[in-house]
Amino acid sequence: MQAQLGPPNAPFASNLSMRSSSPRTDSPLLGEGSSLSRSVNYLPTKFSDAVLYNGLKNRGKGNQLGPKRGGGREAFRSGEARMPGEGDDDYDGVQGGLFGKEGGRTRPRLRWNKFKWSLFFSNLLFSAYSLASMIFLLCTWFDVWAHADIVRVGNRAELVVSTVAAGFGIITSVIGWAGILLNNRSFLAVYTFFLWIGFALLIIPGYLTFKRRNFNLDGKVNNQWGNDFGISDWLRIQNQLDCCGFFSPFVEAAISQVCYSRSVLPGCKGPYMDFERFVLGRWYTIVFGLVPFQIGVILVGLLCSNHITYRFGKGMMPKAYRLSMNSMAVIMDNYASQLAEQYGADVASEVLARSRSNLQLDSLPAMPYTNGTQANLSPLRQDTTLPRTS
């Protein structure tokens, strides 16, 4: 008859003070200067069924040991491992091989996820209206449009701020394209932050033009013509609007071949106010019309920039916490020591041997462990149970 297992030892309260001052393990693999994974300090009390029974698909090629670590396009598929491996796409962010090969091997066909498509279309929209705005503003600066010189004289501050906003938008969109096409989340983080700055720069010219047009435009035009403009500015506006002087040729006029004391040209206040009212109204309407699109681009950037691939970040597990064969040796040593504390060395040896066989880790270095109160490992949970074995 098979011998019955005795009850497990009492919880480890009697040894807590001793273990708190002792090292995590007496394994020589955890000495100073060790390059082991930091996951050995946060061990589960037993392995999952997927690890014990090799439940995950071994999708690797060649003589890969154990189940594939996961990651890549299938990282969030049901039942898939979360830890990336060296061969996964987007393992460390930017990938090389623009012509389909990387490191002498052909890369798999890349597929874009819905987050990347969302970023692509939102940044395409952002690039389109930023570039269109810059082209329109440059045409104004170079006096391509009719009466563009009036805007350069009378609305210079609004024109400068709008040009800065459009230029900053183009720079931001270029950073966004770099992050999207290279799967680089660092670029996308900068891109999302710059979108907020671009939003502020977009609002400023809209506020300035709205305030100027709707709050005492008559008084502002009077003050601008009398205090801000010089003779050269008067002359440029007179030539554009075919007028002479502010009210008449005798009031604040710039003498020219068509503007003199007996000129029949009207004063410039009426035509100039009508032009300002029309231009300023169109200006803030366009700016405030772009605000919903800018907010939409910001929201897409916030929601999708960290999901440019199916894996969150460059890998589900930082490099310092990724497992290696030596780290697995320490993990299994700790696990066996905990079993030895509760069920004895014979049970621990049997479970450890079966686990090595199931994981195809017969080449794993065997680590010594102790039983009873000699073990100096502090268990992470007190409800340790024996794993199932096949």
Automatic annotation (TrEMBL):
The keyword Membrane applies. It is a multi-pass membrane protein. Residues 1-33, 58-94, 370-390 are annotated as: Disordered. The chain crosses the membrane at residues 117-139, 159-181, 188-208, 283-304. Its main location: membrane. Residues 12-25 have a biased composition (Polar residues). It is found in: Membrane. It comes from the Eukaryota. The keyword Secreted does not apply. Signal peptide: none annotated. GO terms for cellular component: membrane. InterPro entries: Tetraspanin/Peripherin. Residues 71-85 have a biased composition (Basic and acidic residues). Keywords: Membrane, Transmembrane, Transmembrane helix. This is Tetraspanin Tsp2.
